[in-house]
Design a protein that fits this description.
The chain has about 60 residues and is mostly helical. Helices cover about 75% and strands about 0% of the residues. It contains three helices and no strands. The relative contact order is 0.10.
């Protein structure tokens, strides 16, 4: 029973940490997100990030 309680507590702490970190990042496609992506090494970008960066930060701003 004690192990189950420890596992449950660990899960709650981990999920809380994930939620807190997600709350701190700007919404994808916003100017703040574009600025964050410019600071992130391109080798760490995912395919979805490349696509969204192109659509939101390059094409939209050029219009």
């Amino acid at each position: 029973m004690k192990q189950l309680c420890v596992k449950a507590t660990t899960l709650v702490v981990a999920m809380t940490g994930v939620l807190l970190l997600q709350g701190c990042s700007p919404e994808v496609g916003t100017p703040e997100w574009c600025d964050d992506m410019k600071d992130k090494p391109t080798g760490e970008w995912t395919a979805n990030e490349v696509s969204e960066f192109t659509r939101s930060c390059l094409i939209t701003r050029a219009e």
